[in-house]
Amino acid sequence: MSSGDRIAEQIWELVDEYVDAKRAAGYSYDTSEKVLHQMTRFLLRRGMDGVRITEDDLDAWVNRTETRKGKGMRFQTMDGFSAFLEMKGYPTYRGEWRTYDFGREFKARILDDEELSSLFSAADDLRNH
């Protein structure tokens, strides 16, 4: 088995352990697991020389997408896995959110009649106090 194959095997074992830990903590982790697997394949294609995540790895992974939401998901996935690697004693780079421009996206929520009635009642109660 080559050095690259051993690194890949170690990485995949750590990925499985991380996903198991997330699920044991109550997260469904289905979508994030898919992103984590994409990230792992991406890192292995980049040619890892050990179990570690570098600043270049983080930048290359996060900036593979144009959307703010995509960048946020990529950053969050890699940062979580980096924290796990760090906890296990592996050298890893932990980026900072402010380094990346994720922006804020407002998502409108339409209230149904019951929710609107409750909201207006609460507002009327505040006005009467």
Write up what this structure looks like.
With 129 residues, the chain is mainly alpha-helical. It is 63% helix and 0% strand. The protein is elongated.
> Averaging pLDDT over every residue, what do you get?
84
Tell me the Rg in angstroms: 21 Å
How many strands?
0
> Which stretches are poorly predicted, pLDDT < 50 over at least 5 residues?
none
Shape: elongated
The helix tally amounts to 5
Beta-strand residue percentage? under 5%
DSSP helix fraction: 55-70%
The N- and C-terminal alpha carbons lie at a distance of: 75 Å
Structural class: mainly alpha
Task: Please write the string of helix (H) and strand (E) elements.
Answer: HHHHH
Largest sheet: none
Characteristic key phrases:
129 residues, mainly alpha, 5 helices, 63% helix, elongated
Structure summary:
The protein is mostly helical and 129 residues long.
Secondary structure topology:
Blueprint: H1 3-24, H2 30-45, H3 55-62, H4 68-87, H5 113-127
Helix pairs in contact: 1-2, 2-4
